[in-house]
């Protein structure tokens, strides 16, 4: 097994949300690493014009998004858990948003509520995590630059990661290895194989996975495969459905279309037409 390749895939993978760039013309992003962890993190920012509805399509990604409305009070900050199928998410018109997308694994011990309660909905950030108010104020300060907000976010993450809950209940290193294998295989790996990596029963692995991710391992694997397919479809000139079907572990075209519709609410061909229409 080529572990360096697995590590690289793990450290660079991030679920795509093409709706943000399509709906908000000033959308910008920066990929980084979560401090003191092997986890990638995506920082992004966009503004919703005053006359715009603010509704944006969001796809299942298996990650969580922290959203900070710039200029607003810390109480307005939210966490959007992974949606389970494509949905329109409302953002406030006339508002700049700073966002952070990540896997909650390393921060899981610091969460005040079970991660599964975040799935498919908005949760007030203060209800889920105890991020220092001063850090949140730095992030939401109107005159702060995008990179100043990133720097403040890193400070907040370091405080959380070195808090008592995280140090007392650190993530078992083999769990990161299990996530690496899911990413490398594009979700095409069995729960039995993953539980072997963790040296535990499949039942114990499922419980651990839900505690650190908030989703069942089977659903997470399906979402990773779907996201991998979406990433390929964003480059239609270089992609054929048959390539995705064979490379990403779908049984046949019917299986690919069925699973794509499960997460997108439409077939891949129609999804591509809608996406290109807004290009």
Tell me about this structure:
The protein has 279 residues and is of the alpha+beta class. It has helices spanning 3-12, 18-23, 125-128, 133-140, 146-161, 164-168, 173-184, 191-198, 202-212, 217-233, 241-247, 253-264, 268-277; strands at residues 28-33, 40-48, 55-58, 64-69, 78-80, 87-90, 95-102, 122-124. It has 2 domains: 11-166; 173-277, Arc Repressor Mutant, subunit A, CATH 1.10.10. It is built from 13 helices and 8 strands. It has a 6-stranded antiparallel β-sheet. A two-stranded antiparallel sheet has the order 3-6. Helix 1 packs across helix 7 and helix 4 (133-140) packs antiparallel against helix 5 (146-161). The N and C termini lie far apart (40 Å). Mean pLDDT is 90; it is low at 1-6.
Give me a quick take on this structure.
With about 280 residues, this protein is of the alpha+beta class.
């Amino acid at each position: 097994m080529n572990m360096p390749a697995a590590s690289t895939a793990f450290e660079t993978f991030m679920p795509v949300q093409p709706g943000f760039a399509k709906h908000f013309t000033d959308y910008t992003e920066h990929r980084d690493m979560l401090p003191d962890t092997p986890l990638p993190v995506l920082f992004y920012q966009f503004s919703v014009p005053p006359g715009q509805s603010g509704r944006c399509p969001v796809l299942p990604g298996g990650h969580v998004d922290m959203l900070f409305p710039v200029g607003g009070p810390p109480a307005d900050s939210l966490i959007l858990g992974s949606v389970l199928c494509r949905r329109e998410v409302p953002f406030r018109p006339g508002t700049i948003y700073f966002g952070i997308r990540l896997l909650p694994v390393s921060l899981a011990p610091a969460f005040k509520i079970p991660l599964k309660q975040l799935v498919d909905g908005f949760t007030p950030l203060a209800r889920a995590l105890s991020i220092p108010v001063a850090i949140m104020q730095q992030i939401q300060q109107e005159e702060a630059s995008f990179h100043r907000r990133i720097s403040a976010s890193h400070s907040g993450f370091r405080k959380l990661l070195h808090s008592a809950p995280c140090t007392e209940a650190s993530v078992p290193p083999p769990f990161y290895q299990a996530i690496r294998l899911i990413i490398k295989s594009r979700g095409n790996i069995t729960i039995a194989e993953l539980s072997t990596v963790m040296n535990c029963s499949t039942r114990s692995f499922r419980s651990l996975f839900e505690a650190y991710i908030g989703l069942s391992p089977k659903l997470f694997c399906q979402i990773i495969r779907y996201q991998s397919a979406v990433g390929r479809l964003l480059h239609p000139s270089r992609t054929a459905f048959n390539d995705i079907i064979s490379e990403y572990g779908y049984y046949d075209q019917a299986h690919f279309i069925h699973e794509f519709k499960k997460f997108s609410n439409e077939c891949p061909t129609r999804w591509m037409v809608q996406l290109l229409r807004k290009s």
